[in-house]
Design a protein that fits this description.
The protein has seven helices and 14 strands. By secondary structure, it is of the alpha+beta class. It has one domain: Deoxyribonuclease I, Chain A, CATH 3.60.10.10. The N and C termini lie far apart (40 Å). It binds one DNA strand of 15 nucleotides through helix 1. Keywords: Hydrolase, Magnesium, Manganese, Metal-binding. Belongs to the DNA repair enzymes AP/ExoA family. This is Exodeoxyribonuclease III.
Length: 298
DNA sequence: ATGGTTGGCATCCAA
C-alpha cells in the first residue's frame, strides 16, 4: 500500500486547466498547423476550403511548387491571413500563413549557402500571453537511397543530401533552443518515426523515409528536448498523414505518418490538443498529405 | 514482377 506511483508516460496529457478549449474560461488558445499542399496552382480550392473550415491561426505550407512572385497571394490574403513565402520554380517551396503578424521572418536553412532548395522558413508570432517562434520545413525525401559498398551514402546522392540536411537542421535547432522561448518546428519531415506509423512497415524498411539511419537522425533531433505533439496525445497505429495517390491507398488506409509538430519544452507545456485532419483527403482534388494541427494555450 | 497517380513544366522528374 502507499508509495508514490510514477505517472504513466503513455497517458495522454491534459492541459493544466483540464481539457479547456478555445474561448472557454476566457482562455485564448492558438491553433497552429502544417499542410503539405503538393502544388499551390492545383490546390487553391482545397487549401481555401481547409483554411475556412479549420480556421488555424497559423499554418506552415510545404511543396508550394511556386516562386514567390507567382504565388497566388490573394487566395490567402482575401481570407484575412498574412503570408510569407520561400519558393522556387517547380519544386519544393515553403510558406507561412498567419492571422497574427509574422515578425523576424527568415528564409532558408543555414549551413550551406550553395544549397538552392527552398525547404525552410521561420517567423515569430506574438499574443498577449507571449511569443512563439515557428519553423516551417520540408525535409528532403532522400530517395533513391544510393549506398557505397560499405553502406555509406554516395556523396552527391539524394540520401546523402537528406542526412546532411538533417545535420544542418540539428545545428539550427540548437540555436533556436538557446532562445529559451516557445518553439514549434513543424512540417513534412519525410520520416516515419516508428513501426506503428506505417500501415505496411515492411514495405518501407529500406526506404529513405524509414531506414534506420533516417530514424536515428530524427531521434537525435527529438532528443535535443522536443516533444512530438501528436504522440503526446495519441498512442497506437493507424494514424497517417500521407497516402499515395496510387492503388486506392487512402481507401485502404495504407498510409504513413510523416508530417510532424515538434515542440520544445516551453511550447509543450502549452499543448492542449493535436490532431490529423484525415477527412481532408476525402475532399475534391486533395493533396496526397493532410493537415496536422496543435492547439497551444498561447 | 509490373504498373498503378499526381503536379509542374516541358515533352520528363520528383514524389
Amino acid at each position: 500500500m502507499g508509495g508514490v506511483r510514477a505517472p504513466d508516460p503513455l497517458l495522454p496529457i491534459t492541459g493544466r486547466n483540464g481539457s479547456v478549449r478555445r474561448g472557454k474560461n476566457g482562455a485564448r488558445h492558438m491553433k497552429i498547423a502544417s499542410f503539405n499542399i503538393n502544388g499551390i496552382k492545383a490546390r487553391g480550392p482545397a487549401l481555401v476550403r481547409w483554411l475556412e473550415s479549420a480556421q488555424p491561426d497559423l499554418a506552415v505550407l510545404q511543396e508550394i511548387k511556386s516562386t514567390d512572385d507567382t504565388f497566388p497571394r490573394a487566395l490567402i490574403e482575401d481570407l484575412g491571413y498574412n503570408l510569407e513565402t520561400h519558393g522556387q520554380k517547380g519544386f519544393n517551396g515553403v510558406a507561412i500563413v498567419s492571422k497574427l503578424p509574422l515578425e523576424d521572418v527568415t528564409r532558408g536553412l543555414p549551413g550551406d549557402d550553395s544549397d538552392p532548395q527552398a525547404r525552410w522558413i521561420e517567423a515569430t508570432v506574438s499574443t498577449e500571453q507571449g511569443a512563439l517562434r515557428v519553423v516551417g520545413l520540408y525535409l528532403p525525401n532522400g530517395n533513391p537511397v544510393e549506398l557505397e559498398g560499405d553502406g555509406t551514402p554516395v556523396a552527391g546522392g539524394k540520401y546523402a543530401y537528406k542526412l546532411a540536411w538533417m545535420a544542418r537542421m540539428e545545428a539550427r535547432l540548437r540555436e533556436l533552443l538557446a532562445l529559451e522561448m516557445p518553439l514549434a518546428v513543424m512540417g513534412d519531415y519525410n520520416i516515419i518515426p516508428q513501426t506503428e506509423d506505417a500501415a505496411r512497415p515492411d514495405a518501407w524498411r529500406d526506404d529513405a523515409l524509414f531506414r534506420l539511419p533516417s530514424r536515428k537522425a530524427y531521434r537525435r533531433i527529438l532528443n535535443l528536448g522536443f516533444t512530438e505533439a501528436f504522440r503526446a496525445r495519441t498512442q497506437g497505429g493507424g494514424h497517417y498523414s500521407f497516402w499515395d495517390y496510387q492503388a486506392g491507398a487512402f481507401e485502404r488506409n495504407d498510409g504513413i505518418r510523416i508530417d510532424h509538430i515538434l515542440l520544445n519544452a516551453y511550447a509543450a507545456d502549452l499543448l492542449q490538443d493535436c490532431r490529423i485532419d484525415s477527412d481532408v483527403r476525402a475532399g475534391e482534388k486533395p493533396s496526397d498529405h493532410v493537415p496536422i494541427w496543435a492547439e497551444l494555450a498561447l
